[in-house]
Amino acid sequence: MQPFHFPIVIIDEDFRSENTSGLGIRALAQAIEKEGMEILGVTSYGDLSQFAQQQSRAGAFILSIDDEEFTPGPEQDPAIVKLRNFIAEIRFRNAEIPIYLYGETRTSQHITNDILRELHGFIHMFEDTPEFVARHIIRETRSYLDSLAPPFFRALLGYAADGSYSWHCPGHSGGVAFLKSPIGQMFHQFFGENMLRADVCNAVEELGQLLDHTGPVAASERNAARIFNADHCYFVTNGTSTSNKMVWHHTVAPNDVVLVDRNCHKSILHAIIMTGAIPVFLTPTRNHFGIIGPIPESEFTRESIERKIRAHPLLEGVDPTTIKPRILTVTQSTYDGVLYNAETITRMMDGWVEAVHFDEAWLPHAAFHRFYSKYHAMGKGRERAAESLVYATQSTHKLLAGLSQASQVLVQDSKGRKLDRSLFNEAYLMHSSTSPQYAIIASCDVAAAMMEPPGGTALVEESLKESLAFRRAMRKVDKEFGKDWWFKVWGPDKLATDGIGKPEDWTLKTNDKWHGFGGLATGFNMLDPIKCTLITPGLDVSGKFAKTGIPAAIVTKFLAEHGVVVEKTGLYSFFILFTIGITKGRWNTLLTALQQFKDDYDRNASMWRILPEFCQAHPQYEKMGLKDLCQTMHEAYAKGDIARLTTEMYLSDLQPAMKPSDAFAHIARRTTERVDIDALEGRITTSLLTPYPPGIPLLIPGERFNKKIVDYLRFAREFNQHFPGFHTDVHGLVEENLGNGTSRYYVDCVA
Ligand SMILES: *Cc1c(COP(=O)(O)O)cnc(C)c1O
Fold first, then answer.
1. 128-186 pLDDT per residue, tens
2. Relative to the CA of 88, which of 158, 446, 570, 573 has its CA 20 to 30 Å away?
3. CATH number assigned to the domain with residue range 652-750, chosen from the 4 options 3.40.50.720, 3.90.100.10, 3.40.50.1820, 3.40.1280.10
4. Ligand 1 within 6 A of 241 CB?
5. What is the atom index within ligand 1 of the atom nearest the CA of 264?
6. What class, spelled out in words, does domain 230-435 have in CATH?
7. What is the pLDDT of residues 338-381, one digit of tens each?
8. Left if phi > 0, otherwise alpha if psi is -120 to 50, otherwise beta: which for 538?
């Protein structure tokens, strides 16, 4: 293995003292260093939980304990209490790291059992030679470190270290090619030797094959399947966009009826087009903040779906009772963090729908914390479906520690049926490159291993804790401002005063005012606390515009110039995430920037002063004040009644005129026509039309434009003309620049 740095951490208040205890511990430290292991010596714990974070960089701990300290008896002795708390903090995150106590022999008799149980040994001061003790500690430390690497990453480390010369691709030969040119040298220095040494091709047998799931790759996929409570796991190196297509191509054939969340990711719509399926859409609720709510439970009932099939223009004359839909795909965690009770959905579909598919791109963390109980696809000890297979597709790169594009398909067999792995692999191959990126595979492997409890549970708990602390801090600021305005964080009214509170606090109850989704079934949905939607003033839950308002686009532009980049921006809301990469109090920066914004807004500070870079690119804002700009844009939104318009447009009854794949085929045959948006009503789109925000597909190939959508596009055109730099982006719209700041907009339609 490479020379990794995992020092043995010694905590002893005498570490630098000239007394016998100091001499003893330093002799031990020297003996350990002589054997080639690093030592990190400190004299106090400092902040316990902060210091316990060191477990991720340490090879072992040696904690010193003094006898004189036991005055009130070992149970309440402050030194023992501190020791116990520290060990608990370590074990909360790490069950395996060796911990030793160091002290006088008579001290050991005072250590209580709950502490002894967690130790790898008690080192009796002056009883053995330091060399002997050092060798023992080093052996345990090495064995602990050797156990860390999961199968594929382990094999890759071995391969990169053994220095064999390759005659195969990639052509850069372990990075050597870069060294032959100056810019190549820069690239090499930036990414480093290891990244390039580990960039190998699939001709390397000892690493196994991703495409047929053999060797160390297969061992890693099995390991991840176990960690995520699945029967099968497939690592995917092209994102969940690809994972979704694999699941679909394995399950859906031309003209099959499929059940799809209307607010699904565009990769699902691509899968509909590719497979030639006939989609029946389930419609989510929305509130007037533009936040997408859940699909109500009633939409999942067989009666409701059969009613939709009966009314479906492409299924005329079909008896709905004879149809067995091939798949149901639900976005598990909507874009604003609303979750479904997966057990309930699976039970409702079981035996009727062939496959139940949860698109958990934003939810790979849920399996590791009790907080999410049944609100994710595969929980420990959850009962299997009787007949239907359950799939979950997860972007390890979005909330866990995967590199970009790291993703996985998880499958749970039913009682009656197992996944046919060889048939599934046909679909897997159809969507995989034959040259997978090994660093991404390794990150899938490591991201899974990191989530192994207790470590993974601790990581999720930290995200939850930070998110709640942020929410509380926002409320505190709000309270201090009193009647004056402040940003709100969308979520239940009741918030635990400390810690993470109870999961029940986060379930969506029927007609709760805060969510604005109306009558929801009990126990069917919850909000994931780590996903925070911040709401800016200007709009209330019912969609009414206030006299003044602060469009979110201006706030996020301001934040970006202050080094805070948010995940997603809506009309009067924006979205931030507390991933497992969050550090304690990182949100303080956001809080300060928001306070700065409020200050600048209240003073109507000049735009050129507060957003200099932006004003350089768009001089028309230079002379405005921040408040003026907010108000001008707010009035433009209000005039277009844009909140209501987008809600109604998304909820409008969209009728397919032809199958999505048939409409899309017009592109290949060049039988499309570029239609000006003013002439769109009634036309059939061949493109997928997706407005940003919210980035949810609005019109699908084969569907007709209605008046609401045309109104929206006209609004977007006018808005873009008045507010350059705050462009409303609509994918699928073709823009022709006419000069003088105006543009014409078209959509490609069936000719
Ligand atoms: C991001 C996302 C995907 C696609 O995942 P990538 O890993 O980016 O390809 C699929 N579904 C949903 C719901 C997503 O948000």
1. 899 999 999 999 999 999 999 999 999 999 888 876 666 666 778 788 889 999 999 99
2. 446
3. 3.90.100.10
4. yes
5. 13
6. alpha beta
7. 999 999 999 999 999 999 999 999 999 999 999 999 999 999 98
8. left
